[in-house]
Fold this sequence. Notes:
20 strands, six-stranded parallel sheet, alpha/beta
Amino acid sequence: MGNIGSNIQEQNRGVCAVVQSSVASRTGGALLADSLIALGADTVYCVPGESFLPFLDAVHDRTDALRLVVCRQEGGASYMADAHAKMTGKPGVCFVTRGPGACNAAIGVHTAFQDCTPMLLFIGQVDRPMIGREAFQEVDMTAFFAPLAKFSATADSAARLPELVARAWAAATSGRPGPAVVALPEDVLAEMAFARDPLPRPPARPAPRAADMTDLATRLAAAERPLVIVGGGTWTPRAAKLVTTWAEASGLPVVAAFRRQDVVDNLSPVYIGELGFSASPRLNARIKAADLIVCVGDRLGEVTTQGYSLIESPVPSQSLIHIFPDAGEIGRVYATDLGIVSAMEPFAEMLSPVDGRHWAGWLAQGRADYAANLRADPCPGAVDMAQVMAEIEARLPEDAVITNGAGNYSGWVHRFHRYRHFPSQLAPGNGSMGYGLPAAIAAKVVAPRRVVVAFAGDGCFLMNGQELATAVDQGLDPIIIVINNGMYGTIRMHQEKAYPGRVSGTSLTNPDFVALAQAYGALGLRVRRTAEFGPAFDQALAAGRPVLIEIHQDPEAISHRVSLTALREKALATSA
Length: 576
């Protein structure tokens, strides 16, 4: 997309309705702040830059309506915006400066896009007369973010900022949610202009046709081995509850897509497990054995489908009913027997139970397999991570929020933690590292009274560990559990599979994480044996400030299912 003045006038006519009876001249920065407040934003995550000082100045006079969370790196700030949106259902808002700042923030944009998360990224830019000269830190932000975001544009006047913000908000929240990016030339933010604030409006949400719902019920009634897969975006607590009630009334087995385990209460009698890297072999086999899959909200991406093998592309062996808020996704990867374009809540409102007595045995076996998967495999070393998870489960309240980034350590979390409420899981579907701590900060901003626990590996934590300073600065009290095994565990696992015994580039020399936490002003605790974890976690729950618990894990415990030695021996035997 080009400059906003040349391409949105006709398309966006009428979006910005009047909410003020009189309009005073304001700076572009003030217009921007007031537009965000009018649309429903209440928090901004940022790393400050001189390119958007007029906006920061406007926030100075609006602290009662707009909370400013100052972060230590733009990647952490954009992750926080993504997690904020997952918690609230409203766009998370992030401000960064041009060039280097925008490049750092791109990781959060990519995460939001793949996770279908509504997000607004605002980027300071060089003055309008300098654009195109490769001025200091100049990047063409509209072009740079075009493949990463649903919408990208550059503001060209202060007077049209409310219009542009409203359009970006609509793009982020309508259809398949995702990130919208707006570049802000500094002189636009300093410019004085008359303009009206936009009127908040609900996002455009597609709903199913009655005939489609009848067709769905008919196909379900004829199935012998049906499964429901839940995931993706546009979920609300009400939609999650309605889908759960429908599945329970119908006796339908429900499976969570990768890192979407909080949609259905994991203690529900119809929940049978999660797909992805931590999925049990029995569950994977059950997906293949199903004769009908009802996918509610998820894209059925590579991780959820084990490389498109559980549900084959382009023509699955199972019948497929796909419910998704964007018509462009239905049929794009998989041939579907029935496609329903709908957001989750309108779909859930139109569901009617079906008689599932003839597949009761199918459900019972799936639930039994799920219970069996909760029984731990042997864990080498002095710290048994399955027992650590049991200690956590015994102490957490039902509404606790669990966050994590990427790494083999997350397998223990996904396998053994049972999510009870939506939203309570914040984890990147694109598998990006460093997400857990920033997400925990955002969760605490949104819900300060809920217990929030972030999990990270040693490599994962050091991607954004500096955001501990943000947690301390904001007076927040997340608990961060760092599993330290001295390596990039996931990459080492794949390395041992392909090149057994040839370790290269995957070992880590780490700082003293306890001392590091204390240097930031957090409480640092160390766990070297399983028995030490319970008391440490009790101390963390009572601390009232950020707490980092470092767990020293034996490298032999490469994953929640296999040891490093067993993995290497299998690879050597295969290659012999």
